[in-house]
Write a structure and sequence with these properties.
With about 90 residues, the protein is an alpha+beta fold. About 40% of the residues lie in helices and about 10% in strands. The chain is built from three helices and two strands, in the order H-H-H-E-E.
Length: about 90
């Protein structure tokens, strides 16, 4: 069985870091890493697009619920670059 690459090892650690609730400093110290190295890999992986099975883009389901509040006719998403997306519901 082939050894995992550095990127695969760091992806597992970054995933564990995100789940840990710890600061980068605490997590890095607990796992024998420098804070700078952990920060580098967290930033590197955050720039990659999320993908699901077979590399397809993954989506996070969104459920809009508010008891006693009427359902809106559309949801507006405004991106930092000024792009606006209106989604009818």
């Amino acid at each position: 069985m082939p050894q995992p690459t550095l990127s695969q090892q760091m992806r597992k650690l970054v995933s564990a870091y995100h789940s840990s609730g710890q600061s980068q400093r605490s997590f890095a110290q607990a796992h024998g890493l420098t804070e700078g190295k952990l920060h580098y890999w967290v930033k590197k992986f955050s720039k990659e697009p999320s993908t699901g099975p077979q590399g397809a883009p993954s989506f996070i389901p969104l459920e809009v619920t508010a008891p006693g509040v009427p359902m809106p006719s559309a949801i507006m998403i405004r991106m930092p670059n000024g792009l606006e997306i209106q989604i009818p519901v």
